[in-house]
Amino acid sequence: MFQRLKLLAIVISIIATTESLAENLCSIIGTRTISFKVKSERNITGYRHVTTDVFLREAKGRNLAVSGDIGLDVSQSTCTTTTERRTHLTSTIVVPEKRLPPPGYELVPGVGWYRLHLTPLTWDEARLACEAEAAHLAVINSQEEATALKKISDRYPKVIPDSKWSDEIFIGFCDPVEGQYITIFGETLSEAGYETWHPRQPDNLRTDLEEKQDCGSFIRTSGKLNDSTCKAKLAYFCEFSI
Questions:
Q1: 62 & 136 share domain
Q2: Which residue ranges does the record assign to the C-type lectin domain (predicted)?
Q3: In a domain, 101, yes or no
Q4: Same domain, yes or no: 133 and 154
Q5: What is the pTM of this model?
Q6: Cβ(234)–Cβ(160) under 8 Å?
């Protein structure tokens, strides 16, 4: 059984403070918050334990300047003298190297890299095609991002000429459980940051393909979400996170 005690006489020296970390990294990875919490506990035998927790928090969206995990290594040492105990924390951040998008991707400043593919594919085919480019089906995280995709698609009045799906573009969400829409990353649309549907959508309308509409799409004319038949062949948006 542990009794929590207020930490009074521990001097903490942190080589990289949260402020300097944020200042040095903002130009590389965007705004992030790193916080340290130190807790002192004493068990029934009288031994004191100092525990360090480190939190790395980032905003929604994947359009940062780096990809992959950002490593944060923290080491802790304690020195006891006759008058005090000193705890020293050392932190090291490992940031993956910046990578460049493949040819054909367009940068929307402050939003991300996108490519609109006009060769129609099914939703699963489109997902694999994006992954083959080290990208993913686009996931909309904000109104700003939805507006950016609409501006790109506006250049193509009918993304697939002579098709009844000419205004629909596959993006990265679906409803594997009927009516529960999630992104390819497992987030709900609300958690992802954008849940604005085209009028009277989603309607789960059956089509001549004899399949319910379980895959997500983007309506070019409105910039809003729609449910589409997964086996339909549509244009699709890929998003590249650098």
A1: no
A2: 114-239
A3: no
A4: yes
A5: 0.60
A6: yes
